[in-house]
Amino acid sequence: MELTAFISGLINEGNVTVAADLLAFEEADLRTAAIHLQQYYEDDCREMPYTAPELDMDAALWAAGYLYTTVQFILLRNLDAALLESHLPAYAGERTPAAIYSADLTLRYLPDLFLLAKGLSPTDPLITWFYQTAHQWPFSSAAIPFTEQVDLSAINDHPSLRQAYTDRIIQARNLSQCRLPENLPFVQAALGSHAASLWPQFDTAINELI
């Protein structure tokens, strides 16, 4: 029950353990993990603004497995970088609002993995892999600096995702995300007249962002 224990530790304690080898998850483990993710979704969606997207279990399970294996690659430095592509496959489905939110149940911890991996060389293939994932799943990466344009259409077209994403940018005080033209109007509207108290640096930097 490696994946189930990983999800439970991640959600309930903030501590995780992973196997010392790259192994496929057993069917029984995946079924139990799905039960945990279903419960997590039901609890989490109550805190979302407006109405949260529906649960996409395929996306939720993919993301949980992806995060688990990513932690393995960070911690087990004996793993060959050539294995990244085969053991960290991209999500095969469409990144709908439901898939974005369901994957985020675990991918929201991507910024924490960036901190965990900060000791790695900037040229390490895993760092490149991180940034590719962050750009593919920007809703889960609001705390990560972006310098390139990303596709935010599925987020901005869904009221719940759009508001939650904006709130995350503000919470992370991530000015680089405000440089994306799609984000700035939403951040400005959310801050309103309270920018000076909620995010003092924003008022100072705003003229450079427009």
Question: What does this protein look like?
Answer:
The structure is a single chain. By secondary structure, the protein is mainly α. The chain is built from 13 helices and no strands. The chain has helices at residues 2-13, 27-44, 57-75, 84-87, 97-107, 110-116, 125-136, 153-156, 159-172, 175-178, 184-191, 195-198, 200-209. The longest helix has 19 residues, at 57-75. The mean pLDDT is 91.
- The total strand number stands at 0
The portion of residues assigned to helices is: 55-70%
Strand count, sense and barrel status of the largest sheet are: none
Q: Unreliable segments (pLDDT under 50, ≥5 consecutive)?
A: none
Outline, from the CA principal axes?
A: globular
Structural class: mainly alpha
What's the alpha carbon Rg, rounded to whole Å? 18 Å
User: Which series of helices and strands comes N to C?
Assistant: HHHHHHHHHHHHH
Question: What's the short story on this structure?
Answer:
This protein is mainly α and about 210 residues long.
